[in-house]
Amino acid sequence: MPADPQPPSVRREELLELAYAYVLQHGMAGMSLRPLAEAVGSSPRVLLYLFGSKDGLVRALLGRSRAEELALLADVRAAGGGPAEAVDRLWEWLASPQRRDLLRLWAEGYARSLVEPDGPWAGFAVQGVEDWIALLGEVLGPDHDPTAVLATLRGALLDVLATGDVERTTAAVRRCTASPTGSRNGTSSPGTVAAASSSPSSEPASGTA
Questions:
Q1: What is the mean pLDDT of the segment spanning 160-183?
Q2: Which of 200, 193, 101 minimizes the C-alpha distance to 143?
Q3: What is 103-136 written as a DSSP string?
Q4: Euclidean distance between CA atoms 114 and 34, whole angstroms
Q5: pLDDT tens, 123-164?
Q6: CA distance 132 to 154
Q7: What is the set of domains in the chain, with CATH numbers?
Q8: Which residues of 187-201 are buried (b: 16+ CB within 10 A; e: fewer)?
Q9: In what helix (H) or strand (E) does residue 69 lie, and over which residues does it extend?
């Protein structure tokens, strides 16, 4: 995803946070500057001045959403623990009802970057994959395949966004990450098996671990 070229300013950051709250609720599909500007107490002219263009605003908003995911990944990295604990922390965050708006926005950005590869969404999907693969490669260790675990988490996340069924998807995540699919050598670690055999909660803890 292209870097946001505009320098930071207090007013720009204030409007970015307000605009981010707006798109979390309304999405970015068909986003028009006028209703957005009215909602954040500004004007289209000011938004264009501060962000350079509508595309610049979209890039800044996508960067803001990515910052939340990067903060989660940093928290999981700092927390330490084994593979099972790391995957549980990631999934609890992803499955929390408090993250629905953010993750719907992520899904929109991911899809748009695939069909509009030259627009402001460019690189959003691949950058997200790279961020998560890097983190999973660190916390899972050499015996587990980060690509397989990421595929499990992303698939379960899309299921939750579609159905809202946290209990079923949590059980599936734990089964899959405990199975040979998630390991490089066809065996499961004791910690992961223990996590898989525990009873999944229907309502995961909110917030980052």
A1: 85
A2: 193
A3: HHHHHHHHHHHHH-TTSTTTTHHHHHHHHHHHHH
A4: 27
A5: 999 999 999 999 999 888 888 899 999 999 999 999 999 999
A6: 10
A7: 10-197 (1.10.357.10)
A8: ebbeebeebbeeebe
A9: helix 54-79
Rounded to a whole number of angstroms, the CA Rg of the chain reads 19
> What does the pLDDT read at residue 144?
86
pLDDT at 175 over 50: yes
Helix (H, G, I), strand (E, B) or coil at 52: coil
The answer to whether 65 and 131 have CB atoms below 8 angstroms apart is no
Is the Cβ–Cβ distance between 74 and 86 less than 8 Å?
A: no
User: CA 140, CA 149: separation in Å to the nearest integer?
Assistant: 9
Hey, what long-range contacts does 203-206 have (CB within 8 A, 24 or more apart)?
Answer: 203/97, 203/166, 204/91, 204/92, 204/95, 204/96, 204/166, 204/170, 205/92, 205/96, 206/96, 206/97, 206/98
187 pLDDT band (50/70/90 cuts)? Answer: very low
* Total residue count of the chain as it appears in this document: 209
Range in 37-51, 95-109, 195-209 with the lowest mean pLDDT: 195-209
Residue reference for tokens 């009802």: 97
